[in-house]
Amino acid sequence: MPMFVRKILHKFFILLAKVMVTFAPGARHVVFAGSGSARQLCEHVLRSGATRVLVVTDKPLRELGIVDQATAALREADIDLAIYDGVLPDPTFEIVAEGVAVGKQQGSDAVFAIGGGSAIDAAKIISAGLTSDESPKNWVGFGKLKHEVMPIYAIPTTSGTGSEATMGAVIKDAATSEKHVLSGATLLPRAAALDADLLTGLPPHITAATGMDALTHGIEAYIGIWERGSRKDDSRVAVKLIFEHLGNAYHDGADRNARDGMAMGAYYAGLAINQVNVGNVHAIAHQLGGKYGIPHGLANSLVLPHILEFCRDEAKTQLAELAVLVGAGAESEGESALADKFIQAVRDLRTEVGIPDQSDLIKHEDFEDIATLAIKEGGAYPVPRLLDRDSVMVILNKISG
Ligand SMILES: [Fe+2]
Fold first, then answer.
1. Which of 90, 102, 191, 333 could cysteine-pair with 84, CB 3.0–4.6 Å?
2. The whole model's pTM is what?
3. Which of 65, 29, 59, 58 has its CA nearest to residue 44?
C-alpha cells in the first residue's frame, strides 16, 4: 500500500480512537507508595470485602519469600488465599487457563498480582476469565474486552512495565509465537502498591532492562501525535525520574531512594501509555520478544535509539524538550542539536546500565516477517512517523549481531 494512503488511514484510525475513548467509561484507581505500602494495599483489599483472594505470581518470587512478604497482612487476616505461581515470562493462553482453573476452584472474589509485567498481565486476563466462559482469544485487540472482571490488585516487583497503571495486557500465542495486546477499561487494577521493600533484591540486569522499558514508555507517549489528558506531564515526570534513578538502582540495588524513584517513574510512564499507547519501538520489540524470547525491556533497549533517529525530524521538538528536561543540553542550543543530544543521552544511559546494542539471536532470514508484523502493529499506534519496510530492515541489520 502506498505510503500516502497509509498516512491517511493512520490519521483516520487515530481519529477513530479519539472518538472511541470519549465514550469509554472512566475507571477509578488508587495507588499506595513507599516502604510498607504492600501492607496498605492488603488492608485496602480487606476493606473492599474480599474473602477469597487468588494470588497470581511466579515460582522464583514465591521461593524468595517476596510473596509471603507482600501478602503478610492478608495472611494475618486469616482470609482464604489461593496461590497460582505458574506464571512464566511472556505468559500464554495456556498459563491463563491454568490460573483461571485455580481461581474457579477457589471461587475467588479478587485477584492479587505480585510480580513483573508477566504476572500482572496474566493476572488481568485471569481475572477476566473468572467472570466469563469466553475464550480470551476473543478479547485480543484494543478495547475489545468490555465485561466486568474480578477486582484486580497489583504489586509490581520490577520497575518497568507500568502494567499496574494500565488497562492493557500482553499475551503470547504459543502456536504462532506472536504477542497480542488485550485492553479494556475494566482491566485497570483497582489499586496498586509501589513498595521499594520488595524491589531491593531485583538483580542489576533485570533492573536495567525493565527500567529501559519504562523509559521507552515515557518517551513513546511523549513523542506520539495523540494529544490527550495528562500524557505529556506524566511522561515528563517518568523520563526525568528514570534518568535520575536508573543508574543508581542498577549500581546499588539496596538504594531505597533510587528504587522509590524508579517505581514511581515506571508508574508514571504506565499512566502515560494508558492514555495514548506506545509506539514503533514496541512494534518492533514485540516481534523480537515473540520470535526469540528476548526479554521485553532488552528488546526495547536495542530498538529505542534507532527509532528515535528514524523519527528525529518529525519529533524534533519533543526530543529537544526531553534533552533539556534531563539536563542533556540547554534551551539556547536549538532543537536540532538538542534532539541529537537526547538520543545520545539515551544511548549513554543504556551503556551505563550494561545493555548491549546488538543481539545475535536476531536472524537475517526472519527480517521480512518481523518487518511485516512491526509495520502492521506500528500503524495502530499514534506514532510521529509510520514504519516502512526498508527502514525496519536497516534497524534490524544494525541490532543483529
Ligand atoms: Fe513495554
1. 102
2. 0.93
3. 29
